[in-house]
Amino acid sequence: MPIPRNLGYGDLSSPGTKLKLVTASDSTDLPDGICRALLIGTAGNARIIDADGNDSGATDLVPLPAGILPVGFKRIYSTGLTAARIWAIY
Q: How many angstroms separate the CA atoms of 32 and 2, rounded?
């Protein structure tokens, strides 16, 4: 089943309404569901599952720049994670 593009947030060009500190996990998705963006405190790499369920894989880590990354994520894996102070924007 495809993920709805609005993810229940209404207009995606509007600002988020809450921040939650991410606890990376190899087995558990983000507890509040798919986020609308990430706020990254310290740049680094991560293995991720995006809003459509695509897994970047253990050998193809995604670079996460410091700042806001306006992409929906379902999971941030703890293995291989070098980015720090990651907040999910909902």
A: 18
